[in-house]
Specification:
The chain has three domains: 182 residues, no CATH class; 183 residues, no CATH class; 44 residues, no CATH class. Helices cover 5% and strands 48% of the residues. The protein has four helices and 30 strands. The longest helix has 6 residues. It is elongated and about 75 Å long.
Length: 436
């Protein structure tokens, strides 16, 4: 009899149920077209002087082909695919919340709960993930369960292809010649989904966009757009790609990759790292949980945290940091110090990638709108406001009230039909599109 219960209030402990075992086998079914995929661990090997075990793959009754070498470290398992040298993660059942996990099968997941569960009197580490929206059309919040010793239960986590990983259905898992399907396939207990801590105020989210009005020292103005689209790995860490449309700087109206963002949240800090295009080393762009008096250096200027508070804008509470910036060589003595704001999940009132450039020695950037899920969540006026801003404009709803294919810019203004748009980022029926 299967007994499955949550061990409330207990921390995850060291792994007791090994993943890598001689003879361990997983069987998956692909329904359309029908085929049976089997993975089998058999024999050992050395990869980069590290002990691993060989995994073989067969389809239906076909030949068993070497698939790769698997290993495990704590509650994480890895594979080096055949004819490859890079070690890639195939599952992570360690204790972590809100972390992004990039799997070898090509899917990016985010953990929303980790705990210990009891199955037939044995404690197991158990983690639940949801798919990120950018995974090739996968519906957000589609759940994937990960059970210690067995791996991911809702995807073929041993595959090399993300589409294949989602279409294969786990049929059985066995170890030591014993069918463990009752444990694996009946592990249907799931906690109620609770939005991860900080999810509403996360700065690094697929599809997020910032629309700025820039003005140079001669008073000439033009529009700049930033938007997040796609994933990348830098130094083994998962980042989101950041693009910009900045014609004066890049001499093109095409989106230009300008770097990659990564957000790390712990109980003590909320930090955003940035790796500029063409570079490999990350730099901390923001810390949305600083202490009074903390200093942050950026180029020849530095900013000092002068005040901390919280504002509520359009129903979302965010940390706000008042920063006094001091320029090393300001040509205007009266502007050697200037004040601006950082707001959690939004960035700086000085500009997205210029966190303390409040001095008017070059280009001034004014945030017109920050967009999430087709909705304006923040504007430049909100930085110094009391937080009593009006409800955001839902451009998706606005478009649906008009004729089909109504087009809006990132500020929610109605535009001409799709065939008459210039290059840029637009919202069509509530979805963001890039016109190239």
């Amino acid at each position: 009899m299967l007994v499955l219960a949550m061990l409330a209030g207990q921390q995850l402990q060291a792994k007791k149920h090994p993943f890598v075992m001689e003879g361990k086998k997983w069987v998956y079914i692909n329904e359309h077209p029908y085929k049976r995929i089997t993975y089998l661990i058999k024999g050992d090997t050395l990869i980069n002087e590290a002990y691993c075990m060989k995994m073989f793959r067969s389809v239906d009754d076909g030949e068993s082909v070497y698939h790769g070498a698997v290993s495990e470290e704590g509650a994480k398992a890895y594979i080096v695919f055949a004819n490859e040298t890079e070690k890639k993660m195939i599952y992570d059942c360690s204790e972590h919340i809100d972390d992004l996990v990039k799997l070898a099968c090509g899917l990016t997941l985010e953990a929303y709960t980790s705990m210990r569960v009891e199955i037939d009197g044995e404690p197991y580490n158990f983690t639940c993930y949801y798919y990120l929206p950018n995974n090739d059309g996968v519906i957000p919040l589609e759940v994937n369960r990960c059970l210690e010793g067995f791996g991911c239960l809702d995807i073929d986590f041993l595959s090399k292809d993300p589409k294949e990983a989602r279409s294969h259905i786990l049929q059985s898992c066995s170890e030591n010649g014993t069918d463990m399907s009752e444990i694996v396939l009946n592990c249907d207990w799931l906690p109620e989904y609770v939005e991860p801590t900080g999810q509403k105020t996360s700065m690094v989210k697929e599809g997020k966009a910032w629309n700025y009005r820039a003005e140079d020292s001669f008073g000439d103005g033009y529009d700049i757009q930033f938007f997040i689209e796609g994933d990348t790995l830098i130094g083994g860490e998962a980042y989101k790609k950041l693009y910009t449309i900045d014609e004066p700087r890049y001499n093109t109206t095409e989106p230009v990759y300008c770097g990659a963002l990564r957000e790390e949240r712990t109980e003590e800090s909320i930090a955003v790292d940035f790796v500029r295009a063409g570079h490999e080393n990350p730099e901390m762009l923001y810390n949305f949980s600083p202490l009074l008096g903390d200093k942050y250096y950026y180029g020849e200027s530095y900013g000092t945290v002068a005040d901390l508070d919280e504002i509520e804008v359009r129903g979302v509470k965010r940390n706000r940091i008042k920063v006094v910036a001091t320029g090393a060589e300001s040509p205007w003595p009266e502007e050697e110090d200037a004040t601006g704001y950082w707001v959690e999940g939004i960035g700086s009132s000085a500009g997205l990638l210029t966190p303390i450039d409040f001095l008017t020695t070059g280009h001034a950037y004014t945030l017109q709108s920050c967009i999430e899920d087709g909705q304006i969540v923040f504007t430049g006026a909100d930085f110094a406001g009391s937080g009593n801003a009006p409800t955001g404009v839902n451009v998706g709803e606005m478009a649906s009230k008009k004729e089909s294919n109504q087009v809006c810019d990132l500020q929610g203004r109605k535009m001409a039909g799709p065939s008459r748009l210039s290059r840029g980022v637009y919202v069509v029926n509530g979805k963001k599109y890039v016109v190239r």
